[in-house]
Specification:
By secondary structure, the protein is mainly beta. The protein is about 0% helix and about 20% strand.
Amino acid sequence: MAEKPVVAGNGPIVMDLAAGETYHWCRCGRSSKQPLCDGSHAGTGLEPLAFTPTGAMKVRFCACKKTAKPPFCDGSHLDLK
């Protein structure tokens, strides 16, 4: 059974992404390289989400790990207490 993700931040993390490069968004919240995976998920049952943009873009990655639209922020952090 997978552990629950840890809240890694209370707002989105904005990044510029390069076209064709694969990024691995941290789902577990334990990575020291937020919002990207550093392998800290080992043993949690949570795997990172691979994302490869087709064009260069600026994105807002979710840091609270509560989004319904992973890996992107959907404002779920606004409901954290």
